[in-house]
């Protein structure tokens, strides 16, 4: 009942019932997690952190609980969003994704990448992979630059939306790193618009991107930015990385910086989100 009430934003009642649930059985880790998230939504951060920390004690193997704990500072966050969390989020979000993101949040990720890629040299036609393509919003923008355009995502319902646009030559279900590892030297341009907010540790992505790009190929992506450290998981449940971290990974995996443009990723609901549109070039040597 507490979880159902939380889903319809009746938070005071939700918290009341979730408190009763954990009082009746203090070993219910999932109830502690739901209580923590509901308290967080109420703005009661100290109690939220305590409830989530208790959930993590009871469910130490749960990636989802570790993820929520990390977002409120109640423990070290995982290196990326748990797959089950993302799958539920995006499969449920697919029908209203474009309207919410572009109309209500004034999201500009794909357009920002197109503008930034336009500032660097590239062939007139390229083999392009749209990583974490979502509903395929980047597809129509990059189609004129594509000899071959591939969409990749791990949400079946998002891929259905991307396929319906009829701009992709291939639509692939799967994880980004696995896909890139399976396509050595296949692409001239890799796109990742608003994807790395769900991946904190980008080392594997950079390694497999270097494997999948031809020499001189471009790796274009957006990030939310922080001033120091490698990456953090924010209370918004989005990761942010520092440009120092991005430059270090670029050096480690043979990329040169082609363009880095500070920008506003999204506005609308809540605070304006600042970030950077990045284009890296795979070194020729």
Give a description of the structure.
With 285 residues, the protein is an alpha/beta fold. Helix content is 44%, strand content 24%. The protein has 13 helices and 9 strands. Strands 1, 2, 3, 4, 5, 6, 7, 8 and 9 form a 9-stranded mixed sheet that branches. Strand 6 and strand 7 form a beta hairpin. Helix 2 packs antiparallel against helix 3, helix 3 (29-42) packs antiparallel against helix 4 (45-58) and helix 4 (45-58) runs antiparallel to helix 5. The protein starts with a helix and ends with a strand.
Question: Any key phrases for this structure?
Answer:
single chain, 285 residues, alpha/beta, elongated
Mean pLDDT: 89
Largest beta-sheet characterization:
9 strands, mixed
Strand-pairing-aware structural class? alpha/beta
Rg, please?
A: 20 Å
The string of secondary-structure elements, in order, is HHHHHHHHEHEHEHEHEEEHEE
Q: What share of residues is helical?
A: 40-55%
Question: What's the total number of strands?
Answer: 9
Beta-strand content bin? 15-25%
| Poorly predicted spans | none
Number of helices: 13
What is the approximate shape?
Answer: elongated
Report how far apart the termini are.
Answer: 60 Å
How is this structure best summarized?
With 285 residues, the protein is of the alpha/beta class. The protein is built from 13 helices and 9 strands.
